[in-house]
Design goal:
By secondary structure, the chain is of the alpha+beta class. 16% of the residues lie in helices and 33% in strands. It comes from Neoroseomonas alkaliterrae.
């Protein structure tokens, strides 16, 4: 077993990855957009070639497409294929900071510049961790339409037979002006994984999630949680979405019901969140709007 100092040295050795950039192309195809619409319970046929998409939908395009031989036992691409080879086995989304100035259009090619922004060690209550921050710059028609900084948390594996550690529960806010309930069915989570080309096994293989990663059930995809919170809030939007921040605080489980809430908009901002079946806060977001 390595010491904390050796672990920090191993993360320091990955600093040459910081600043590396990949370009991911996407044609923003009609069939892809319609699959997303169907997954979100919208009429797929309502989307036509040339239509502008909801501004936050860029997060569901530009997948990293690895060869099957490069897929690891957890369903992610092997370390070093696209992302730095962080020497910790468990990876989960943690949060993001997004600015939006435009929207993708169906049939108009676009690119994502995927830049390694930070690799930082962290030693906390649950053991050794590392935070990987990726900066995704979305461009189409020669313009930047969104910048997305996404944090992924890497952790140690729990000992065999021990439950995976989760953050202590905290109650969700009580000042919501709406409360939309959504069933996180296995079909919904699977379809989201399909449209985003995400093969992480904890989201669809409950036996793997329990036996290998110490979770009580298959784990809800954090990207889908943020998508649902945004969609619920935008039904009450005071203007055009120009950005948001998000923080995932506690896992949700496939098969549970999530409650999507938001406070009254104020000063072009709106606080939104997701609560689990026990009323615990699972995701907190703040949205920004322009008139």
């Amino acid at each position: 077993m390595t010491t904390d100092a050796e672990f920090e040295a191993a993360i320091a050795a990955l600093q040459h990855w910081v600043g590396r950039e990949r370009i991911v192309e996407d044609e923003i195809g009609l069939s892809s957009a319609r699959r997303i619409a169907g997954m979100l319970d919208m009429d797929p046929a309502s989307l036509k070639q040339g239509d502008a998409l909801p501004p936050h939908w860029f997060t569901m395009f530009f997948p990293d497409i690895a060869r099957q031989s490069d897929i690891g036992p957890d369903g992610h691409p092997e370390k070093g294929v696209f992302l730095p080879p962080i020497p910790l086995p468990r990876r989960m989304g943690a949060g993001r900071r997004v600015t939006i100035s435009g929207a993708l259009r169906i049939g108009e090619p676009a690119i994502k510049r995927a830049i390694v922004a930070q690799v930082a060690p962290k030693i906390g209550r649950t053991g050794r961790m590392a935070v990987l921050t990726m900066r995704h710059v979305i461009e189409t028609r020669g313009e930047v339409i969104a910048v997305d900084e996404f944090d992924a948390l890497y952790r140690e594996a729990p000992p065999p037979g021990q439950a995976s550690a989760v953050s202590p529960p905290q109650p969700a806010p009580a000042n919501g002006i709406y409360a939309d309930r959504v069933l996180l069915s296995s079909a919904l989570v699977f379809r989201y994984s399909a449209v985003t080309w995400n093969a992480h096994r904890i989201h669809y293989d409950a036996d793997y999630a329990r036996q290998e990663e110490g979770y009580p059930a298959a784990v809800q995809n954090g990207g889908l949680t943020m998508q649902l919170v945004l969609d619920a809030a935008l039904k009450r939007a005071p203007g055009r979405l120009t950005g948001f921040t998000a923080r995932l605080t506690r896992p949700l489980w496939v098969g549970d019901t999530v409650t999507l809430c938001g406070a009254a908009p104020s000063g072009g901002r709106m606080a939104c969140w997701a609560a689990d079946k026990d009323g615990h806060l699972c995701a907190a977001m703040e949205l920004e709007f322009a008139a």
